[in-house]
Fold these 2 entries.
Entry 1:
Amino acid sequence: TPYPAHLDADFPPLKNDLILRVARGEDVERIPVWIMRQAGRYLPEFREERSKHDFFTICRTPELACLVTLQPIDRYEGLLDASIIFSDILVVPQALGLEVQMLPAKGPHFPEPLVDPSHLARLKKDVNVDAELRYVFEAITLTRQKLDGRVPLFGFVGAPWTLMAYMIEGGGSKTLSKAKAWLGQWPEESKELLQRVTDVVVDFLVGQAKAGAQLLQVFDSWAGELSPAQFNEFSLPYIQQIPTRVRAALREIDPTLAKIPMVVFARGAHYALESLSTPEIGYDIISLDWTMDPVASRKRVGDNVSLQGNADPSLLYAPKETIKKEVAVMLEKFGTKRRYIANLGHGMHPDHDPEHLRAFLEAIRDVSSERNS
Ligand code: CP3
């Protein structure tokens, strides 16, 4: 059975819409902030839950996914301006029929990765995301209720290239040599794989918006391994299908759903900033990694998209005074209460100190209110 569509009226009213206003290009009274991987192992309360359950059991159990999504929201009450549903980008390869395990200390592991194009036959055709990924939709609907309007809720997916890379590498890799070998050896089959992943990703994002997600982020975490030419051939064509197709499907259900803001994070793909921010593609927010200069990036994208980011996650290892100073520099460089969302340039690390994240969040609050007064 199809998962039912949920509209704003089905949920508690939103009390903090700063991020939604930034996505629309409106002025805000202070700079909003959320953090990639804000739920996770750096939090003792997450490790406590994790000691009781397998990683994908947490993802597949709506009450547990909801619980850990809310952990950073509760701990940093009033300091975070968005939540992100607890899940993983690798639930899409699972929906396509591949087994994925989460090994302690090693990270994701595919016991049987795709070795050559004959293995494309192992992938499910016509994936029914309402059946395969219903647990994510249920987690989103439940979490949106439990958030009680405190902050908006992000849904997310992995970008087709990043998912293809995992499906072939079978886990983390320094060079991505197997996945990149496919691009040279089997370009047409690579594109078939990318297109099949894209089709599932589109349905999955549509489902997340229907379930109650209020923004959607696409993570191309391994974009930076590609040359500009490879990115233009094997990543961008798929990333750029997503907003148009997602919004067209949502418009059929309800026009208000189709307005959902969309974010793209193509880590390491410096060269792609202009192409990702063209209005025809339809991303409202571009998330920058920490190697990008805010001033230069703003010049390159113009004034019609919002930027998100981009402190080096390793800043959180520094003393709190240093964190505060660097935050002031970052906000000065992004320089505006329009079209900017503060974040790190990538996710939290497991060995970060939660109190240093608090110092980062407080610094953003303090600096951005000082500049307002
Ligand atoms: O708070 C949040 O941001 C929501 C949860 C979230 C997770 N993964 C939970 C998680 C999100 C948004 C992701 C996305 C994700 N997963 C990405 C894109 C973002 C990025 O970091 O580039 C990628 C590449 C993955 C794949 C993945 N999952 C890796 C490489 C790993 C192992 C490395 C690591 O950071 O642990 C995971 C595991 C994972 N995903 C954990 C969590 C909390 C830790 C696993 C555990 O508890 O054992």
Entry 2:
Amino acid sequence: MDLEREEIEKPLKLYFIHYLAAGHMIPLCDIATLFASRGHHVTIISTPSNAQTLRRSIPFNDYHHLCLHTVPFPSQEVGLPDGVESLSSVTDLDNLAKVFQATTLLRTPIEHFVEENPPDCIVADFIYQWVDELANKLNIPRLAFNGFSLFAICAIESVKAHSLYASGSFVIPGLPHPIAMNAAPPKQMSDFLESMMETELKSHGLIVNNFAELDGEEYIEHYEKTTGHKAWHLGPVSLIRRTAQEKAERGEKSAVSVHECLSWLDSKRDDSVLYICFGSLCHFSDKQLYEIACGVEASGHEFIWVVPEKKGKEDESEEEKEKWMPKGFEERKKGLIIRGWAPQVLILSHRAVGAFVTHCGWNSTVEAVSAGVPMVTWPVHGEQFYNEKLVTQVRGIGVEVGAEEWSAIGFGEREKVVCRESIEKAVRRLMGGGDEAEKIRRRARELGDKAMQAVREGGSSHNNLTALIDDLRRLRDRKVLD
Ligand code: UDP
């Protein structure tokens, strides 16, 4: 990784505690690497199976002071099979609840480790609300991370303040822009987030995997004014990965080789390929997958489509296959189907990729922005519906597919299917040329350039990291003097 690797005097000692889901673990551990690159002593606290992924994905050998500490995962206590330690490896509500239960059971072993070797600061996912008590007990600052954009957090806070949980469309009140929503969040989701967000506000500050120019100064001011809390934009963190290999190693083990992926993309024209991926948690029905296949095929564009690992494997019968893929679809060779984990950051940064059909998970969104790739937005759950509006209504770098069903979680049956016509239409709007498409692409490129500038020396995120480190040092040194 092309980071600074500073050697410094009196480095800070920081512990990072990631949540058990790819979309939280990947960015937080990249942020941990950023601190280590500035010469600070960083320990990532993980569990055995997640640690295996991290060892493959993070260049521990490049940084002397970047370490991994594992605590046992309470598999037996919660009733999960050995090795299942992440939301990204479960597909039903029952197991989801078990992973969540594990986050409370991890408290004892993590507290034990932290209390024996206290750091200068703990950076923890907001799901671990108990870290608040621990940090207070040790009299050290805690930084919170929730994986959202600040724009989405402002939207969530406003919806909460006005109890806007009824179904149907509404305009989010009190935000710097009149954001029109075509769906309302499920109450269940808001209840789940509320107490975590309240505890988050008691932290020393919030770390955001975004850059100030994408959230916008107006949202940063709005957040600080309405909450009295400080947010530190340190991203986009995926940009610390420069080489093809580093990009491909991010997250799980990729289902395709770098060579296969690049040689397929290298043979395509600039901006001609559609990339379709719905993150690590969404599981669509066969009916929905079938509509995607038909819509994309009708658009006439070549594509890379990421589907669940088991789809199309040898043991899948023709009959099963035809439930989610039209007959002869693969044989027509209009695209590359990746079954399982795709090297997303590598794909998005290729010149041949012209648009991204995304569920608007925050990481996927900011990764597309970083690569200057416009989006067809298809939110499914969580805060993704707010991310969509940042992309389409505020920054104008994408078009909406028209998803209206706001689920509480990424899997499970959905009542509404996004039809092939809507998919084809949205893809054509972005990939079919014309004034609108050109404007969107130009704006996406400009924001991509700004993302690159933000992480360079003198850029907004680079400066924020320096300021945050200075702040934490001041707190530590003051404590020594006290
Ligand atoms: N990801 C990937 N390959 C995949 C699926 C996901 O590299 O096949 C990465 C993606 O680049 C992003 C993260 O996993 O960094 C998913 O996070 P996001 O917030 O987009 O969605 P979530 O999975 O949390 O719904």
